[in-house]
Amino acid sequence: MAMEEGAMPKAKLVAAVLVLEMLIAGFHVVSRAALDMGVSKMAFLVYRNGSALLVIAPVAYFLEKKDRPPLTLRLMIDFFMLAAVGVTFTQGLYILGLYYLSPTYVSVIQNSVPAITFVMAAVLRIEQVNIKSRHGLAKIAGTVITIAGATIITLYKGMPLTTTHSEGTHKLKDIKVILSPRFTWIAGCLVMFVNCLCLSAWMVLQVPVLKKYPAKLSSFTITLALGFIQLVVVAPFFESNIERWKIHSGGELLTILYAGIVVLGIAWYIMIWCINKGGPHFVSVFQPLQTVMVAIMASIFLGDRLYIGGVIGAVVIVAGLYCVLWAKSKETKSNSDLLSERSLAQNLLHEESYIMIEDL
User: How confident is the model at residue 65 (pLDDT cuts 50, 70, 90)?
Assistant: First the structure.
């Protein structure tokens, strides 16, 4: 009975992460569809965050009305930085990378997030690394392998493994690739790598902020609101044409609402909950499953192409990812065993001291 009670929270956490990956996989495909329809990149970001904020803010206000800690200047600075990293930069770089690459390759490159997260967590001493142990060496090796996989994808495209089934949908993209294929490929990969840096930083920085402000939904709402304000301020510098801000079809509206309410609202809250329960590393470990989902969806709905370089790079990245995962699990078990041994030794010493006192 005790084992079943202990397994339930773990099962809920895994189920939540699986739902999260499925929602984000759909987001990759929907966002690419929005760009193919001609939606402005900047308008997409502003409308996306605005629609999510309209739904989440009232819910956060009423659900956590009694649980919210008071906001301090220091907390507002932390939230502003979280918004800049997790909303403005992460989303801006993502939509630019998706403009150059297909949804599948965007998801493949984002598989490097766990390795980057590990490095950042180690630098900030959230993650402990012992280079003298095999676990520590395995973490470092996994990180290097993951970076090597991302490099392969960037520098080697290779032959196509699948054919495109919907040329009309990708007409704009195909013309762009014909004009400068090497530039668009490398530019897209580099932009997505910086996106991964920002996403990893956001995941790691969530940990100390949630300790000071544990109202998760309110924390996310404040971050989203500050990010929305930042986007509105910078938007005119990137998109000054008023016509580009108009929504011309129901399809465009649906993509924005899905990206905003479903993904940025529901999925990001699920992500914050999962990070709080399982840690940033646990959440990022499920990233490869998202890639499989994206590849299937993109192939069906967008006629997405796969190239041999991307497949090789993806395999290398996943190998590095699970090398880090294996090291993490072994290290956790080792630390748990060590704590158990110390606890047992302390209990024995306590009992021995008690017996000696009784004898006196």
Answer: confident
Which range has the top average pLDDT, 26-30, 142-146, 238-242?
Answer: 26-30
Q: Tell me how far apart the alpha carbons of residues 216 and 209 are, in angstroms, rounded to a whole number.
A: 10
Closest by CA position to 111, among listed 139, 142, 87, 88: 142
- Residue 189 sits at the vertex; the CA angle it makes with 192 and 138, to the nearest 5 degrees, is 80
Residue 331 — pLDDT band, cuts 50, 70, 90? Answer: low
- Measured CA to CA, the distance from residue 118 to residue 226 in angstroms comes to 27
| The two three-digit tokens of residue 271, written as one number | 């992500």
Residue labelled with tokens 């008023």? 242
What CA–CA distance (Å, rounded) separates 116 from 98?
A: 20
Distances 204 to 5, 66, 124, 196, 311 between C-alpha atoms, Å: 29, 27, 9, 12, 28
Question: Which residue shows structure tokens 């993490």?
Answer: 328
SS3 307: strand
Which residues are paired to 307 by β-bridges? 160
Cα 107 to chain centroid distance, Å, stands at: 10
Residue 162: CB atoms within 10 A of its CB come to 13
Tokens at 201, concatenated: 């930083």
Of 267, 258, 292, give the one whose Cα is nearest residue 104: 292
**What's the average model confidence in pLDDT over 157-171?**
56
Q: pLDDT higher for 296 or 233?
A: 233
Model pLDDT, residue 350: 43
Q: What is the CA radius of gyration of the chain?
A: 23
What gap in Å lies between CA 109 and CA 278, rounded to an integer? 23
C-beta of residue 217 within 8 angstroms of C-beta of residue 291: no
Q: Is 156 left (phi over 0), alpha (psi -120 to 50) or beta?
A: beta
